[in-house]
Amino acid sequence: MKVNRVCVFAASSRQVDDIYLEAAYSLGEIFAKESITIAYGGGAVGLMGALANGALAAGGEVIGVIPKFMVDLEWGHPEITELKIVKDMHERKKLVMEGSDAIVALPGGCGTLEELFEALTLKRLGFYLNPIVLVNVNGFYDPLIKQLELIVDKKFMDKRHLNMWSVVSSPEQVLNVINNAPKWSNQARRFASI
């Protein structure tokens, strides 16, 4: 599968450990070197800013999607390839995922988790069929992965739903996992409700 565009969910916090910022920057560089366009939330700081800066430093294309109120607060990245301004968070989420060949979730807070869970829900219902990858830097997603496994174990989701996402420990593994992720079909609707 040729990967042209990847949607990346990431945090905007400035106070996180450098290990997370470095991973985001590296992911941006990796995508840029492979001529993969990044679509993300348009922010200039935190993991979002590091992701964009890594891609830009390597000559990559970065498309940001940001609600107007965040532009008014001057949260938008001023140097990315394109900054699309939308009316609200719902429109942002839809547009940033649209046309993506994969979704990658870097560590983040409630916004990142909310975006990730919407993507997983859309995949469960067969509306999004492409790979979803969690970049589990420093074990960040370990508790979430255990929770998802518990959801399956307690029969709130089918065992086949465990194939909706893949987990990597570093940005260097992301592209290989995207290219080798289990195939998903809109036939998943048949077991969306168990």
- CATH architecture descriptor text: 3-Layer(aba) Sandwich
Major sheet, described briefly? 7 strands, parallel
**Low-confidence runs of at least 5 consecutive residues:** none
Total discrete domains? 1
Order of helices and strands: EHEHEHEHEHEHEH
Number of strands: 7
Distance between the termini: 31 Å
- Quaternary organisation: single chain
The top level CATH class name:
Alpha Beta
Class based on secondary structure composition and strand pairing = alpha/beta
Q: What is the alpha-carbon Rg in Å? A: 16 Å
Share of residues in strands: 15-25%
Give the overall form: globular
Summarize the amount of helix as a percent range: 25-40%
CATH fold call: Rossmann fold
Task: Name the average pLDDT.
Answer: 96
Major beta sheet, strand line-up? 4-3-2-1-5-6-7
Helix count equals 7
Kindly describe this structure.
This protein has 194 residues and is an alpha/beta fold. The chain has one domain: Rossmann fold. It is 39% helix and 16% strand. It is built from seven helices and seven strands. Strands 4-3-2-1-5-6-7 form a seven-stranded parallel β-sheet, with helices on both faces. It is globular and about 45 Å long. The relative contact order is 0.16.
Topology:
Layout: E1 5-9, H1 18-33, E2 37-40, H2 46-57, E3 62-67, H3 68-72, E4 82-86, H4 89-97, E5 102-105, H5 110-124, E6 132-135, H6 142-153, E7 166-168, H7 174-180
Parallel strand pairs: 1-2, 1-5, 2-3, 3-4, 5-6, 6-7
Helix pairs in contact: 1-2
